[in-house]
Amino acid sequence: MKGLRFLALALAAPLMLGQAEPRLVPEVSNNQIEIRYSFSGEQLLLYGAIVYPDGRTPEGVSDIAVVIKGPLERIVVREKERVFGLWMNVGRTRFRSAPAFYAVASSRPLAQIVDEQTAAIYELGVGNLQLSPAGGNPTEEAQRFEAGLIDLKRRTGLYAEEPGAVRITDGVLYTARIGIPARVPVGTYTAETFLIRDKRVIAVAEREIRIDKSGFEGWVADTADRHALSYGIAAVMVSLLLGWGASAIFSRQ
Predict the structure, then answer these.
(1) In the chain, what is the straight-line distance between the N-terminal and C-terminal CA atoms, in Å?
(2) Do 208 and 245 belong together in one domain?
(3) Is there a single domain that holds both residue 131 and residue 59?
(4) What confidence tens digit (pLDDT) does each residue in 40-74 have?
């Protein structure tokens, strides 16, 4: 099925010529991911075609970068230090709009295909994410907390960069694989594809990806969202019953 869709893109490319600017025709192998109890992550295939005006591929090198990110969330990062032998929170910063997941794959290392200004405008690379820290912190302190947040996300597999992971065939067709980790949160994600030439972004296309919980996990998440008070009361009652049961078992031994 994936092969037929890929072939369809290649066959449709000549019909979409006559554009004044190059155009991207992107696709995603799975735009609806369901998280079940056995979910251990997934490899997404992102592929598509580059449609050039008059069907002529220009001389020189064109590059592709593919970004999957979302959903935005508010995160509080706390800094701990050892004080009199105890680990204590000595500072914290709140980020208003940090993506819960961010991964970028590119045909070459980003530093080789875009300049710093372009990378910052399009948020290409984890170091260029606009994390929107809450005001009030000095610049050096804010940078330290940003570095700490990015390092934490990298270690948990939620932020990643894959230079060289995009393959371009005949200057027209491209493919890339990006791993979605098991602990990825539910929500709406975007898959953005950038066509880059002479360190400038000359075309952008976007697809939407939805990640949801299904089965028993989905029912629990939906219940907690729709009936928060009832869910909270039920959770407390279950905890009390489990505690009482454990106490009764151990008291008989």
Answers:
(1) 60
(2) no
(3) yes
(4) 889 999 999 999 887 778 788 899 999 999 999 88
